[in-house]
Amino acid sequence: MTEHSPAFISAVPVLASLDMARTVAFYVRVLNAKAVYVQPGEYGIVSLGGLELHFWACQDPEIPKQTSCRIQVTGIAALHAQCLAGNAVHPNGGLRNQPWGTQEFSLLDEDGNCVTCYEDHPAT
Fold it and tell me: What positions does the domain VOC occupy (predicted)?
């Protein structure tokens, strides 16, 4: 039997939540996510098409303010407009081209988690 080299398949961000029902409802409202699991005071999961975001219950309001993740998307301009309409774009996270070849923006959830959405965008 030959051994196979390890391969990374996917990653699932796990963010802090101060109020599980409110956190899940935010992602459902702003990103049109599907609520997969909600256990108040324990754990939550939302599905965004081919990926999931998980949430753990947290009591310290400073922890989510130090938490972030990056999600690769397509249709970044439309998603940015959707998040603007939902009043969820981070005050310093507007849509911009980055020198490393992405176009991205950040949203800020009601707990303080920062989620940066990005799309490959060749630098010009």
Answer: 7-120
Contacts (Cβ under 8 Å, ≥6 apart) of 87: none
Instruction: List, for residues 21-41, the tens digit of each pLDDT value.
Output: 999 999 999 999 999 999 999
Domains of the chain: 14-120 (3.10.180.10)
Specify the DSSP element, H or E, that contains 61: none
Q: What average pLDDT does range 39-48 have in this prediction?
A: 96
Counting every residue written for the chain, the total comes to: 124
What are the beta bridge partners of residue 102?
Answer: 120
Q: What are 9's two structure tokens?
A: 């398949």
Q: Please give the structure tokens belonging to residue 58.
A: 């947290």
3-class DSSP state of 49? coil
Pure H helices in the chain: 20-31, 76-85
- E strand intervals along 1-88: 14-17, 34-39, 43-48, 51-57, 68-72
Amino acid (1-letter code) at residue 115: V
Tokens of 7: 């391969």
Cα–Cα distance, 89 to 31 (Å, whole number): 12
